[in-house]
Amino acid sequence: MSTTEEVAKKREPKEPLFSKKNKKLVTEPLGDNNPVTVQILGICSALAITVQIEQAFWMSVSVLFVLIAGNVVISALRNLIPSRIRIIAQLVIAATLVIIVDEVLKAYVPDVSEKLSVFVGLIITNCILMGRFEAFAMANKPWPSALDAVGNGLGYAWVLMVVSFVRELLGSGKLWGANIFGSNLPGEESGLYAMGYMNNNMMILPPMALIVIGIIIWVQRYRNRALIEE
Amino acid sequence: MESTLDIFVKAIFTENMIFAYFLGMCSYLAVSKTVKTAVGLGAAVIFVMAVTIPANYVLENYILKEGALVWLNPEYGVNGSQTIDLSFLSFIMFIAVVAAIVQLVEMIVEKFLPTLYGALGIFLPLIAVNCAILGGALFMQDRQYSTLLDATSFGIGSGVGWFIAIVLLAAIREKIKYSKTPAPLRGIGITFIVTGLMGIGFMSFTGIEYGKKKPAAKAADKAKIEVKSDIQTSQLIINKKD
């Protein structure tokens, strides 16, 4: 009898896997604490690859993987890493994971890997990674760290997907490489192009990504006044 | 072939780290509130780039590249019996070099410029994770510059381009404080849009001819050429409307 009581006592302080606190770790970075639009992290390597949805998708998947694996590894090692060299230790773990991602992309989606060129390598210096490793994984257990990584990774992913959706649709009239507005080949126009529609080539230029994100920030802060800066 | 000067000018204007590739945006947006700190960080970035890119060039060409170990033993050469390609290690090696040099810069600045050290605070160690620095090294690897001099001029040029970008933005942000911006756009929102507009301004340098001959297309630049041709068509359209 005593043994069952002991077991129950041991289990009591443990919180359930999906407690309210843990759920918040996933949901908060999706909205009010989004890493890209609120904390302004990780825009470095994000914007240049949002011309097409396909690239943005693979980039998001890569970042999500590196973020989850890195957060779990670092939080498991958090008591072993000396604080003086923690940045280098974090960088080495991130670099190792990114090498894995790079080799996998090269092997299975070589054309996407070529388009992403140096930006896969730049995941190492993505500020979201360093921010999460430093602020969360170094102070928390592996499971909450994994949830935190999922939340932040998805928060990054949806912004990327929205930006690339707008840019690919308006910039080249396509989504994931498929024609949406009809064909715009000279001489055999169809769909909207036959009615005189033209692609907005401005959208392909890199600066437009900044402006699209600026507009997302505008909308988000208009809806949630608490985020407005003084 | 591009001359050394071409590489330098290109790195500052058309291939500007901020406006063409968005590298180093995090510190760019965070430290550009006043011109004074922007100048300090910009100078630190120029220095770090001017040192790390040539250092990584040497590393790449004498250790990592396929067949680069030929100086060690001719057998390791490209046509030798055991070709060794260590380029998959380049991410980890480059970031180690960058982190080490940033540590060095930090110590130097702390010793000789304590006021600047105080002003930069957390952002000095964060140069290690500034994407522009690692990005510079990766572009250097991607574009295969033929001499150490070219790599150095690319490094300094990219640093100067970053410096110009952050100082300009800081100047604009100092002025924008006094204007009536819609509340939800205040702060970071308007900064994004301003950076975007500045980027469009810098795009107008694209049409400038640098050398006499255009360099032959490199395999690694295929993706960029696709985008570039799109840019050209968009410019044609704009010209037609004029």
What does this structure look like?
The complex is a heterodimer of chains A (230) and B (242). By secondary structure, chain A is mainly alpha-helical. Chain A contains eight helices and two strands. Chain A starts with a helix and ends in a 7-residue tail after the last helix. In chain A, 57% of the residues lie in helices and 2% in strands. By secondary structure, chain B is an all-alpha fold. Helix content of chain B is 67%, strand content 0%. Chain B is built from eleven helices and no strands. In chain B, helix 4 (35-64) runs parallel beside helix 8 and helix 8 (131-143) packs antiparallel against helix 9. The longest helix of chain B has 30 residues, at 35-64. Chain B is globular and about 70 Å long. The two termini of chain B are 34 Å apart. Chains A and B meet through helix 4 and helix 8 of A and helix 2, helix 3, helix 5, helix 8 and helix 10 of B.
Strand content of chain A: under 5%
What fraction of residues of chain B sit in β-strands? under 5%
**Straight-line N-to-C gap of chain A:** 61 Å
Quaternary class: heterodimer
Global structural class of chain B: mainly alpha
Helix % of chain B is: 55-70%
Please, what is the average pLDDT of chain B? Answer: 80
Q: Portion of residues in helices of chain A?
A: 55-70%
Low-confidence stretches of chain A: none
Number of helices of chain B: 11
Structural Rg of chain A: 21 Å
**Which H/E pattern describes the elements of chain B?**
HHHHHHHHHHH
Task: Look at the helices and sheets of chain A and give the structural class.
Answer: mainly alpha
The biggest chain-chain interface is:
A-B, 57 and 60 residues
Radius of gyration of chain B: 20 Å
What is the H/E string of chain A?
Answer: HHHHHHHEEH
User: What is the global morphology of chain B?
Assistant: globular
Q: How many β-strand runs of chain B? A: 0
Point out poorly predicted stretches of chain B. none
The number of helical segments of chain A is: 8
